[in-house]
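Quiz preparation item.
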């Protein structure tokens, strides 16, 4: 056996220097001492506990009564054994503090506790380029979310973030990772991996584990887009297709593209969108047309789109159009106007 492998024993994390084992050893020594004093010296439980306390703590108080020869040998063994256990415990605790494991355990326990409380949250699979953009949007909109990523470097970056970000360090293609992120209580899942295979496995697992969850996935090819939808994705986004469309359109309609680019940058633009569902309307406003709702007059925001129950979109809907069940309005306005809109419809 090589010496470097022996010396490496002291740097193993959680294998030998384990705080839990140290606590078990301390309890074992205490119980052994109590049982030994009661058996060898015939002490009562109270006397045995007292003798154990002064022996292990080495304070040197007077014994209950003089020890027999066997009692002296037993006491000596307990003292030597206790010295070893104390040294082991101090080494374990020092190792945990120096290596940061103790604080890491407290951190992970806090994260796990917060994740267990999550409901109606968004699961973001992958914290790459697209994942970061999504997280920035969710933070700005104060939407609860959990990140799943398998990269240690990415997890370290998340841990150093100034934002309070909940995460699961695991592979999103594994069912265990989705379970840890409470997928059964989640509202939506967004898979942003650059590898279509990872997206496909993630979507397939997510749909099986939660048939009602909304799933959005990235894709790089048209063939994969079809497979993702067959696997259970509600929406498939192809960034290359969107980028090509924007670049082609900017030639003939530069100001229109610039306008949409402006309003899509939430940090630089004061123009935002809000979705109004039929379920958001209080009973007093249901069955009324856009004109009768007086959204423009009461909130300052403007209705720019309408989604029918058949998933058809109508741009600039007629003022007499009524929001029915399974239908939605899309409103445009600044932050103040949309906040007024939410209060008007009592949208959480």
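Solution:
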């Amino acid at each position: 056996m090589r010496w470097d492998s022996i010396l490496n024993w002291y740097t193993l994390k959680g294998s030998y220097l384990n705080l839990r084992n140290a606590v078990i050893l301390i309890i074992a020594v205490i119980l052994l001492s109590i049982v030994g004093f009661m058996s060898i010296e015939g002490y009562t439980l109270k006397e045995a506990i007292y003798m154990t306390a002064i022996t292990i703590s080495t304070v040197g108080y007077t014994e209950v009564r003089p020890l027999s020869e066997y009692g002296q040998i037993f006491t000596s063994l307990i003292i030597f054994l206790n010295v070893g256990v104390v040294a082991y415990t101090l080494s374990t605790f020092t190792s945990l503090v120096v290596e940061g494991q103790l604080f890491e355990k407290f951190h992970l326990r806090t994260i796990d506790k917060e994740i267990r409380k999550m409901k109606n949250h968004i699961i973001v699979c992958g914290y790459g380029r697209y994942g970061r953009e999504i997280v920035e949007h969710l933070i700005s909109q104060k939407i609860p979310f959990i990140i799943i990523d398998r990269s240690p470097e990415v997890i370290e970056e998340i841990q150093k973030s100034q934002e309070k970000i909940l995460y699961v360090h695991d592979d999103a293609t594994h069912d265990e990772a989705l379970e840890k992120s409470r997928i059964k209580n989640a509202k939506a899942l967004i898979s942003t991996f650059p590898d279509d295979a990872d997206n496909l496995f993630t979507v397939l697992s997510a749909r099986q584990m939660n048939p009602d969850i909304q799933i959005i996935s990235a894709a790089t090819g048209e063939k994969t887009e079809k497979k993702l939808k067959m696997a259970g994705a509600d929406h498939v986004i192809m960034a290359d297709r969107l980028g090509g469309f924007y670049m082609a359109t900017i030639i003939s309609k530069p100001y229109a593209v610039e306008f949409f680019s402006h309003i899509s940058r939430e940090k630089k633009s004061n123009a935002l969108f809000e979705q109004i569902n039929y379920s958001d309307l209080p009973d007093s406003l249901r069955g009324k047309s856009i004109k009768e709702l007086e959204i423009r007059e009461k909130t300052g925001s403007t209705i720019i789109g309408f989604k029918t129950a058949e998933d058809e979109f109508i741009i600039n809907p007629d003022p007499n159009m009524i929001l029915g069940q399974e239908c939605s309005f899309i409103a445009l306005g600044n932050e103040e106007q949309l906040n007024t809109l939410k209060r008007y419809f009592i949208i959480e």
